[in-house]
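Standup notes
- DV: blocked on the single-chain target, sequence here:
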Amino acid sequence: MTDALEILGDRYSLPVLRELMYGYHRFSDLAKLTGAPRTLLTGRLRRLEEAGVLTRTQYSQHPPRFEYHLTQAGIDLVPVILMLREWGERYTGDGARKAVFRHNCGAELHPTTVCGACQQQIRPGEFAVTRV
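- DV (later): unblocked, structure below
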């Protein structure tokens, strides 16, 4: 967990990944939507690219402009981002919802963690830890 926080634990990394997840891929959009200063955003994007969480693709030669996309490692963070968003809306701030998420089935999305074998929701005390 500490290693993951080294990559994701600053103020702007998760908001950047959130916006990529929402479908915004251009630097200008990421800067506007996250509120990150441009020089700081450049460094965060570079660090996330080096960590294998996103890729950078040039879409304009003059001037050079880039788009950013989630890699498989970034896509694997989508459930984490959705759960953090829900937790944040429930337990921080004024409790006002910022957005409503719907699954493709039409139901409002409330992500949970389930066992891959039995599909039961995972709750504290219902699993064992074996340190290796």
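- Follow-up: The domain at 2-75 is CATH 1.10.10.10 (Arc Repressor Mutant, subunit A).
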